[in-house]
Amino acid sequence: RTVYVNGEFLPETEAKISIFDRSFLFADGVYEVTSVLDGKLIDFMGHMKRLERSLSELKFAFKPDIDQLLEAHRELVKRNDITEGLIYLQVSRGSAGDRDFAINPETTPTIVMFTQSKSLIKSALAERGQKIVTFPDIRWRRSDIKTVQLLYASLLKTEAASKGADDAWMVLDGFVTEGSSNNAYIVTQDGTIVTRELSTDILHGITRASVLKCAEELQLKVEERHFTIEEAQNAKEAFSTSASAFVCPVAEIDGKKIGDGVPGPIAKRLREIYIEANRATAL
Length: 283
Ligand code: PMP
Fold this sequence. Notes:
This is Probable branched-chain-amino-acid aminotransferase. With 283 residues, the chain is α+β, with helices and mostly antiparallel strands.
């Protein structure tokens, strides 16, 4: 694979960053994952807006050059011949040449990118529906910033797999926040789509924004509010959204089947519409 490091394209085996890089020592970095369909970038500008927000919330003085990043994304897609898959972009605070908790404002950010070739539209998981298990949300209380501190999410994914499940949903003060790497939704018995409102408790999903727009265009009812695991278990449908899995239906939560325990019609329809709409506007 060809990867990108600070403006250069090079073989992954030749890519180097400092051991003093603050993303390595302090998880002091943010990232974005953009999906690729037909060799084009899905909702690239949405991801760049969130990148700018994450950087500014962490007080980075650095302002990314979005045109340059778009060019670099396209170049990596071309060099690695990606028709379907993901592009990972990480912007780290960089290195001050030593380990020091206090942030040195003089560091130059480290920017790395790599591609993952992956089938996204055809998904066995989306076809059968995910098995979800729930865990307390013990993350730091700025889950809206897309930092590379993903240890808890990694532990949960691993724990979910060891319980025979596909993913984990997190619960804070009795209410679902989000999935380990996706936003969480239910469809109530009267057909209303419910997802937690935006706050510092969840990541402001780029796919979430797009899917809610699709839902409105389909004249589906949407409520942005808290919901409990119990309400989810008694819902008609449940699903999650993310750039890498689009809309992914949920079949079971903590051993309880959702509806008939198969992907529901609203989740399936939203998945189709999301893919169709975003394919048409890909860059
Ligand atoms: N929540 C969390 C915790 C995530 O890690 C992600 C994906 N990175 C999402 C939600 C979904 O965001 P997006 O739709 O922008 O991929």
